[in-house]
Write a structure and sequence with these properties.
The structure is a homodimer.
Chain A (H helix, E strand, L loop, with lengths): L1 E5 L6 H13 L3 E6 L4 E3 L5 E3 L2 E2 L10 E4 L4 H5 L3 H12 L3 E5 L3 H6 L15 H6 L9 E4 L2 E4 L5 H15 L1
Parallel strand pairs in A: 1-2, 1-6, 2-5, 6-7, 7-9
Antiparallel strand pairs in A: 3-4, 8-9
Chain lengths: 169, 169
């Protein structure tokens, strides 16, 4: 199983770190991907390094995509290559997980319309305006989209993603 | 003439500071307002202090509202009191100016539908999904809404706002 995690400047540190180690715990390969390869300062001050740039990877190489929150999503959504990558992974029925402000990227990838999406309450209006169904639940699972509100939803979200990945792989 | 500027954590420092001093240059009173009174760290690291909390002020007290960008708007839009303040100032035909990510607050205040709005390109999808007309211009003036894309648009934006305020006051 191969996992892609997207990061950029101002990523919510723990929303990157916990999924990163949790996926590795399963023995899965995890690639940390950013628009340009480099080091990124998290919202809470830690420094994170990416393994690959978005132009070095193909959606075909991954089974799972995860997009952490913080303000990294505001930066990720600016890159057409990132949005194409997200959309292709989604369109092939692979797992797309995201949390907190992460669904901003899903909005710009055009994949939330008519879907039940959990996300941080600050972006509720953006989700609703994009046609998503914002239930207010801590986690949501709709098709191959798995989403959560904030760090308090991470454990449940990761459990859902990992169980689903094992069941359908 | 009395001006309200809304700030929160992660405000884009220069998008607060230049308008603050520019309005004062006109001899106008400027109140820096935040959801709770306090000091706020800007996105570029400076520390800014608010004069009043949103519950201490009334829309009736102000002639102009300005909302800087950075990630402060993501925080400001979480407060119903802030959104009510913005909407009331807008509904009474007073000037509402905003720049960069600031229009996120205008989206949540429900005042962008059918309006020509300039804003940072990262939030274009949110503006379009909210029904705004995103022309891609550096500055836009539609009715009493004055908006701009980023710091490069600030001088033109402030000139427009100040000229309009003097003309119609």
């Amino acid at each position: 199983m191969k996992v892609a995690i997207l990061i950029e400047e101002f990523v919510e540190d723990v929303e990157f770190l916990y999924p990163y180690y949790r996926f590795k715990e399963e023995g899965w390969d995890v690639d940390v991907i950013s628009p340009n390869r480099g080091t990124f300062k998290g919202k809470k001050g830690m420094t994170h390094k990416s393994d690959k740039s978005i132009v070095e990877v193909s959606p075909d190489d991954y089974d799972i995509l995860f997009i952490p929150g913080g303000y990294a999503p505001d930066r990720l959504r600016r890159y057409p290559e990132v949005l194409e990558f997200v959309k292709k992974i989604y369109d092939t029925g692979k797992i797309v997980g995201s949390i907190c402000h992460g669904p901003w990227v899903l909005i710009s990838a055009g994949i939330v319309k008519g879907k039940r999406i959990a996300g941080y309450y600050a972006i509720k209006d953006d989700l609703v305006n994009a046609g998503a169904i914002y239930t207010g639940n801590e986690v949501e699972h709709d098709g191959n989209l798995f989403t959560g509100t904030d760090p308090s939803a991470m454990s449940e979200l990761m459990k859902m993603i990992i169980e689903h990945a094992k069941k359908y792989s």
